[in-house]
Amino acid sequence: MNNIKFVLGFCWIFLCSLFLWVFFKNVSMTVTTLGLNGGLYLVYVLLFYKPYRAKSIEILQPSLLLITLQMMFFLFAAGVFWYDNLPFVNLLWALLVFVGVLAIQVWEQTAFLKSVEKPHK
C-alpha cells in the first residue's frame, strides 16, 4: 500500500481547517476542527500503519471498532461543549470535516483490501 494515502487525510484536515479560518476568521473553530480531527486521524494512522505494512487482511473488526470509538469521542466532545457552554458551531464544523475524514478512511481500507486480495486470485 502506498503511504501517500495516509497523508491524504492529514491534507484534508489541514485544508478544511485553513478554509474555516479564512472564511470565518474564528481561531477557536479552526483549533477545534484541527485538534479533534487531527488527533482522531493520528490514532487511525498509528493503529493501521503496521497492519497495512504487513499486508494483513484482518483489519475489518479493528476498523469498525475504531470508527465506533471515533463517533463516541464526538458524543463525548458534544457533552463537554454543552457542559462548558462552548459554541456548538465549532463542533458542527469539526463533525462535517470528520465525515470527510471517515470517507477517506473507508476508501483507504477498501483500496487496501482490494490490493491484498488480488495476489491471492
Describe the protein.
The chain is mainly alpha-helical and 121 residues long. It has one domain. It is built from 4 helices and no strands. Helix 1 (4-24) packs antiparallel against helix 4 (88-117) and helix 2 (27-53) packs parallel to helix 4 (88-117).
Outline:
By secondary structure, this protein is mainly alpha-helical. The protein has four helices and no strands. It is elongated.
* Beta-strand percentage range: under 5%
Q: Please tally the helical runs, counting DSSP H or I stretches of 4 or more residues.
A: 4
Q: What class, by secondary structure content? A: mainly alpha
Helix content: over 70%
Rounded radius of gyration (Å): 16 Å
**CA distance, first residue to last residue:** 18 Å
The ordered string of helix (H) and strand (E) elements is HHHH
Q: Tell me, briefly, the overall form.
A: elongated
Low-confidence stretches: none
In total, the number of strands is 0
Mean pLDDT: 89
Count of separate structural domains: 1
Biggest sheet, in brief? none
